[in-house]
Amino acid sequence: MSPAGKRALVTGGSGHIGGAICRTLAAAGAEVIVHGNRHAERALETVQDITDAGGSAMPLSFDIRDDKAVQAALETLPDGPAIQILVHAAGRPDDAPLAGMSREQWSGPVDISLNGFFNVIRPLLLPMVRTRWGRVIAISSVSGLIGNRGQANYAAAKAGLHGAVKSLALEYASRGVTGNVVAPGVIATPETSEQFPKDRIENLVPMQRAGQPEEVADLVGFLASDKAGYITGQVIAVGGGLG
User: Fold this and answer.
1) Do the beta carbons of residue 111 and residue 156 sit within 8 Å?
2) Which of 70, 115, 117, 191 is least enclosed, having the fewest CB within 10 Å?
3) 179 and 172 in contact (C-beta within 8 Å)?
4) Is 133 helix (H, G, I), strand (E, B) or coil?
5) 8-state DSSP, 81
6) How far apart are CA 190 and CA 128, in angstroms?
7) What is the pLDDT of residues 6-43, one digit of tens each?
8) Active site residues
9) What is the Cα Rg of the chain in Å?
Protein backbone atom coordinates (compact mmCIF):
# COMPACT_ATOMS: atom_id res chain seq x y z
CA MET A 1 0.00 0.00 0.00
CA SER A 2 1.14 3.58 -0.63
CA PRO A 3 -0.11 7.07 0.25
CA ALA A 4 -2.54 6.84 -2.68
CA GLY A 5 -6.05 6.54 -1.32
CA LYS A 6 -4.93 7.02 2.29
CA ARG A 7 -6.06 9.70 4.69
CA ALA A 8 -3.23 11.84 6.01
CA LEU A 9 -3.33 14.46 8.76
CA VAL A 10 -0.58 17.06 8.75
CA THR A 11 -0.46 19.17 11.90
CA GLY A 12 1.09 22.53 11.24
CA GLY A 13 0.04 22.22 7.62
CA SER A 14 -0.37 25.98 7.57
CA GLY A 15 3.40 26.44 7.86
CA HIS A 16 5.88 26.57 5.01
CA ILE A 17 7.36 23.13 5.65
CA GLY A 18 3.98 21.68 6.61
CA GLY A 19 2.41 23.08 3.46
CA ALA A 20 5.10 21.53 1.27
CA ILE A 21 4.47 18.20 3.00
CA CYS A 22 0.74 18.49 2.36
CA ARG A 23 1.29 19.15 -1.33
CA THR A 24 3.74 16.26 -1.66
CA LEU A 25 1.39 13.77 -0.01
CA ALA A 26 -1.54 15.00 -2.08
CA ALA A 27 0.50 14.64 -5.28
CA ALA A 28 1.11 11.01 -4.26
CA GLY A 29 -2.66 10.48 -4.07
CA ALA A 30 -3.38 10.91 -0.37
CA GLU A 31 -6.45 12.69 0.95
CA VAL A 32 -4.78 15.36 3.08
CA ILE A 33 -6.26 17.00 6.16
CA VAL A 34 -4.45 20.31 6.51
CA HIS A 35 -4.30 21.51 10.10
CA GLY A 36 -3.87 25.13 11.07
CA ASN A 37 -4.57 27.13 14.20
CA ARG A 38 -3.02 30.59 14.46
CA HIS A 39 -2.76 30.79 10.67
CA ALA A 40 -5.85 28.90 9.58
CA GLU A 41 -6.03 31.08 6.47
CA ARG A 42 -2.74 29.59 5.26
CA ALA A 43 -4.19 26.12 5.67
CA LEU A 44 -7.05 27.19 3.41
CA GLU A 45 -4.53 28.45 0.84
CA THR A 46 -2.74 25.10 0.91
CA VAL A 47 -6.03 23.27 0.45
CA GLN A 48 -6.78 25.51 -2.53
CA ASP A 49 -3.36 24.80 -4.04
CA ILE A 50 -3.96 21.06 -3.72
CA THR A 51 -7.46 21.08 -5.15
CA ASP A 52 -6.39 23.36 -8.00
CA ALA A 53 -3.77 20.74 -8.86
CA GLY A 54 -6.42 18.01 -8.89
CA GLY A 55 -5.70 16.62 -5.42
CA SER A 56 -7.91 16.00 -2.41
CA ALA A 57 -7.63 18.09 0.74
CA MET A 58 -9.67 19.68 3.51
CA PRO A 59 -8.79 22.15 6.28
CA LEU A 60 -9.11 21.42 9.99
CA SER A 61 -8.53 23.99 12.71
CA PHE A 62 -7.86 23.23 16.38
CA ASP A 63 -5.50 24.10 19.20
CA ILE A 64 -3.15 21.13 19.41
CA ARG A 65 -2.36 21.94 23.03
CA ASP A 66 -5.95 21.13 24.06
CA ASP A 67 -6.71 17.39 23.96
CA LYS A 68 -10.47 17.97 24.10
CA ALA A 69 -10.29 20.42 21.21
CA VAL A 70 -8.28 17.87 19.22
CA GLN A 71 -10.83 15.13 19.84
CA ALA A 72 -13.75 17.42 19.01
CA ALA A 73 -12.12 18.50 15.74
CA LEU A 74 -11.38 14.92 14.68
CA GLU A 75 -15.02 14.02 15.30
CA THR A 76 -16.12 16.64 12.75
CA LEU A 77 -14.30 14.88 9.91
CA PRO A 78 -16.55 13.38 7.23
CA ASP A 79 -17.01 9.64 7.37
CA GLY A 80 -14.25 7.81 5.61
CA PRO A 81 -11.26 5.55 6.14
CA ALA A 82 -9.09 5.80 9.21
CA ILE A 83 -6.25 8.30 9.20
CA GLN A 84 -3.25 6.11 8.39
CA ILE A 85 -0.63 8.81 7.98
CA LEU A 86 0.12 11.36 10.67
CA VAL A 87 2.75 14.00 10.06
CA HIS A 88 3.25 16.11 13.16
CA ALA A 89 4.77 19.32 11.84
CA ALA A 90 3.23 21.74 14.35
CA GLY A 91 5.76 23.57 16.46
CA ARG A 92 7.39 26.93 16.92
CA PRO A 93 10.39 28.21 18.87
CA ASP A 94 10.29 30.92 21.52
CA ASP A 95 13.94 31.83 21.93
CA ALA A 96 15.64 33.17 25.04
CA PRO A 97 18.77 32.37 27.04
CA LEU A 98 17.87 29.74 29.62
CA ALA A 99 18.65 31.97 32.62
CA GLY A 100 16.26 34.61 31.32
CA MET A 101 13.57 32.28 29.99
CA SER A 102 10.10 32.63 31.49
CA ARG A 103 8.05 29.60 32.50
CA GLU A 104 5.63 30.45 29.67
CA GLN A 105 8.48 30.47 27.15
CA TRP A 106 9.66 27.10 28.43
CA SER A 107 6.19 25.56 28.29
CA GLY A 108 5.12 26.88 24.89
CA PRO A 109 7.30 24.73 22.58
CA VAL A 110 6.84 21.71 24.87
CA ASP A 111 3.05 22.05 24.79
CA ILE A 112 2.94 22.27 20.99
CA SER A 113 5.69 19.89 19.85
CA LEU A 114 5.59 17.22 22.56
CA ASN A 115 2.25 17.39 24.36
CA GLY A 116 0.57 18.24 21.06
CA PHE A 117 1.98 15.09 19.52
CA PHE A 118 0.47 13.02 22.34
CA ASN A 119 -2.90 14.76 21.99
CA VAL A 120 -3.08 13.94 18.28
CA ILE A 121 -1.54 10.48 18.07
CA ARG A 122 -3.45 8.94 20.97
CA PRO A 123 -6.90 8.90 19.28
CA LEU A 124 -5.41 7.88 15.92
CA LEU A 125 -3.21 4.95 16.93
CA LEU A 126 -5.72 2.16 17.57
CA PRO A 127 -7.75 2.82 14.40
CA MET A 128 -4.43 2.89 12.52
CA VAL A 129 -3.34 -0.38 14.12
CA ARG A 130 -6.60 -2.06 13.15
CA THR A 131 -5.79 -1.40 9.48
CA ARG A 132 -2.36 -3.03 9.95
CA TRP A 133 -0.74 -0.12 8.10
CA GLY A 134 0.35 3.23 9.42
CA ARG A 135 2.96 5.93 9.12
CA VAL A 136 3.78 8.30 11.98
CA ILE A 137 6.29 10.98 11.04
CA ALA A 138 7.29 13.77 13.41
CA ILE A 139 9.01 16.91 12.17
CA SER A 140 11.72 17.86 14.63
CA SER A 141 14.81 20.04 14.27
CA VAL A 142 18.56 19.61 14.38
CA SER A 143 18.24 21.62 17.61
CA GLY A 144 16.84 18.44 19.14
CA LEU A 145 19.98 16.58 18.06
CA ILE A 146 22.76 19.02 18.87
CA GLY A 147 21.11 21.80 20.90
CA ASN A 148 21.18 25.48 20.06
CA ARG A 149 21.88 28.68 21.93
CA GLY A 150 18.67 30.31 23.08
CA GLN A 151 16.60 27.21 22.32
CA ALA A 152 16.82 25.03 25.43
CA ASN A 153 13.01 24.87 25.44
CA TYR A 154 12.67 24.01 21.75
CA ALA A 155 15.57 21.53 21.80
CA ALA A 156 14.12 19.80 24.87
CA ALA A 157 10.70 19.52 23.24
CA LYS A 158 12.16 18.06 20.05
CA ALA A 159 14.49 15.66 21.88
CA GLY A 160 11.49 14.44 23.87
CA LEU A 161 9.64 13.92 20.62
CA HIS A 162 12.49 11.69 19.41
CA GLY A 163 12.06 9.46 22.45
CA ALA A 164 8.30 9.29 22.08
CA VAL A 165 8.46 8.30 18.41
CA LYS A 166 11.21 5.73 18.98
CA SER A 167 9.07 4.14 21.71
CA LEU A 168 5.99 4.15 19.48
CA ALA A 169 8.04 2.50 16.74
CA LEU A 170 8.98 -0.35 19.07
CA GLU A 171 5.45 -0.81 20.39
CA TYR A 172 3.72 -1.03 17.01
CA ALA A 173 6.33 -2.41 14.61
CA SER A 174 4.60 -5.79 14.54
CA ARG A 175 1.31 -4.11 13.62
CA GLY A 176 2.53 -2.54 10.40
CA VAL A 177 2.90 0.95 11.89
CA THR A 178 6.21 2.77 11.51
CA GLY A 179 7.39 5.80 13.44
CA ASN A 180 10.18 8.09 12.30
CA VAL A 181 11.46 11.61 12.87
CA VAL A 182 12.67 14.10 10.27
CA ALA A 183 14.94 16.79 11.72
CA PRO A 184 15.36 19.78 9.39
CA GLY A 185 18.28 22.16 9.71
CA VAL A 186 18.26 25.64 8.20
CA ILE A 187 15.34 25.65 5.76
CA ALA A 188 14.55 28.61 3.52
CA THR A 189 11.39 30.25 4.84
CA PRO A 190 10.54 33.93 5.44
CA GLU A 191 11.28 33.44 9.15
CA THR A 192 14.69 31.83 8.74
CA SER A 193 15.70 34.33 6.05
CA GLU A 194 15.72 37.02 8.75
CA GLN A 195 17.66 34.88 11.26
CA PHE A 196 20.19 33.36 8.87
CA PRO A 197 21.85 35.77 6.41
CA LYS A 198 23.84 34.21 3.59
CA ASP A 199 27.23 34.57 5.28
CA ARG A 200 26.00 32.91 8.47
CA ILE A 201 24.59 29.97 6.51
CA GLU A 202 27.90 29.55 4.67
CA ASN A 203 29.75 29.39 7.99
CA LEU A 204 27.23 27.15 9.75
CA VAL A 205 26.03 24.66 7.13
CA PRO A 206 28.60 22.36 5.49
CA MET A 207 26.71 22.53 2.18
CA GLN A 208 26.75 26.35 2.53
CA ARG A 209 23.11 26.82 1.61
CA ALA A 210 19.68 26.65 3.16
CA GLY A 211 17.49 23.68 2.37
CA GLN A 212 14.14 24.00 0.66
CA PRO A 213 10.82 22.98 2.24
CA GLU A 214 10.34 20.56 -0.66
CA GLU A 215 13.54 18.73 0.31
CA VAL A 216 12.02 17.98 3.71
CA ALA A 217 8.70 17.08 2.11
CA ASP A 218 10.33 14.62 -0.30
CA LEU A 219 11.78 12.63 2.61
CA VAL A 220 8.43 12.66 4.38
CA GLY A 221 6.75 11.42 1.21
CA PHE A 222 9.21 8.55 1.04
CA LEU A 223 8.74 7.62 4.70
CA ALA A 224 4.98 7.62 4.15
CA SER A 225 5.29 5.11 1.30
CA ASP A 226 5.58 1.33 1.08
CA LYS A 227 9.21 1.75 0.05
CA ALA A 228 9.98 2.78 3.64
CA GLY A 229 8.10 -0.11 5.22
CA TYR A 230 11.25 -1.50 6.86
CA ILE A 231 12.42 1.86 8.24
CA THR A 232 11.21 2.69 11.74
CA GLY A 233 12.49 4.27 14.92
CA GLN A 234 14.89 6.57 13.05
CA VAL A 235 15.77 10.26 13.39
CA ILE A 236 16.94 11.56 10.02
CA ALA A 237 18.46 15.02 9.68
CA VAL A 238 17.83 17.13 6.59
CA GLY A 239 20.47 19.71 7.33
CA GLY A 240 23.06 19.83 4.58
CA GLY A 241 25.57 18.19 6.90
CA LEU A 242 24.43 20.07 10.02
CA GLY A 243 23.27 17.70 12.73
Assistant:
1) no
2) 191
3) yes
4) coil
5) S
6) 35
7) 999 999 999 999 999 999 999 999 999 999 998 999 99
8) 154
9) 17
pLDDT at 132: 97
Domain ranges (residues) in the chain: 7-238
7-238 to CATH, choices 3.20.20.70, 3.40.50.720, 3.30.460.80, 3.40.50.880: 3.40.50.720
Check residue 1 and give its pLDDT.
54
Q: Residue 211: is its pLDDT beyond 70?
A: yes
Q: How many CB atoms lie within 10 A of CB 138?
A: 28
Between CA 84 and CA 87, with CA 85 as vertex, the angle to 5 degrees is 155
pLDDT tens profile 120-141: 999 999 999 999 999 999 999 9
The torsion angles phi and psi of 235, rounded to 5 degrees, stand at -115, 115
Give the C-alpha separation, 16 to 11, whole Å. Answer: 12
Q: Is the pLDDT of residue 191 over 90?
A: no
- What share of residues in the chain are helix, strand, coil (percent, to 5)? 50, 20, 35
Given pLDDT bands bounded at 50, 70 and 90, which one contains residue 243?
confident
Q: Which of 238, 224, 236 is nearest to 31 (CA)?
A: 224
Quote the CA–CA distance of 158 and 139 in Å, as a whole number.
9
Compute the average pLDDT of residues 84-92.
97
